[in-house]
Amino acid sequence: MSDGLLIVIPCLNEEAHLPALLTLLCADPAAADARIVVVDGGSTDASTDIVRRFGANDPRVVLLPNPKRIQSAGVNLAVARYGADAQTMIRVDAHATYPGDFLTRLIEAAKETGADTVTISMRATSDGGACFQTAAAAAQNSALGAGGSPHRKGGGRRWVDHGHHALFTLSAYRGAGGYDESFTHNEDAELDARIRAQGGKILLAADILIDYFPRRTATALARQYFGYGRGRARTAAKHKQPLKPRQLAPLAVAPAIALCALAPVSLWALAPMSAWLSLCLIYGAILGARESQVCAVFAGIAAAIMHAAWSAGFLREMLTPTRISASASQTQNA
Fold first, then answer.
1. What are the residue ranges of CATH 3.90.550.10 in the chain?
2. Phi and psi of 127, rounded to 5°?
3. Assigned fold of 4-217
4. pTM for the structure as a whole
5. Per-block average pLDDT, block size 10, for the chain (334 residues)?
């Protein structure tokens, strides 16, 4: 296999998306001589069989078991195993869909700007799941759910502190030490902090847009955002980073909910939570009307779950910090 490009796909139970994704990547001219590594964290569906079938017909595609299961460890493992002769690595998350010229446009953006890392925009959408997934997608595409995060907005190209990971020069990736495998969530922002610290430049190519599929149930969404909150707290503590205004607002949600315990003493204790929940529900109803989708009306409920779980996860980590073991994790975050 030639040198140049390494494509890494962290995967866990993605049989629904892998066939189309691998077909798309293999057809991109930029992947003509690339190595495409699917790093599997223990799938119990047909994911590994799908990768093996592709590999049998196309030597560019290989399956790499990831015993530590989480994405940070999987990408590091792929780079260590297959990246010796590569100059560029592109991370592709299996739980999404991509434009047909995705690889080509990323490489062109890196060459044109001299960026060490190229990040991209993402748009949440339903892949035919339950009504709740549509509601979660509407929430994540809005200011209520994303808080004005740059890589959720689309647009042009600009230099940023962080974005949704896509392309790395491997010199920058290795120079920063790769992903911290003790992080099960927020490993991307934590790595970006180290890349910036060594003088690396991070480009947001917001014109390169992918479609991301949110969690299908309230429980799965809450679990995901609880992990995000814990990861953000660990990143802030590790790098002594102050929170941005869009992160400070949801941080107050868990305390507002906890304050409700004082309602028997004073009904005013319900006021903060009532105000926040009313805002979420009203905003969600407006989103639903704007998008003309019945399910999107429930975006406020999805956003409330995201806020509360993120806040609880952040405060949990700040109050009882733990060193998360990558090998002990049982899930991957998308």
1. 4-217
2. -110, 35
3. Spore Coat Polysaccharide Biosynthesis Protein SpsA; Chain A (3.90.550)
4. 0.87
5. 80 94 96 96 96 96 95 96 95 92 95 96 85 93 78 80 93 96 92 95 94 93 95 92 81 94 95 95 90 88 96 94 47 39
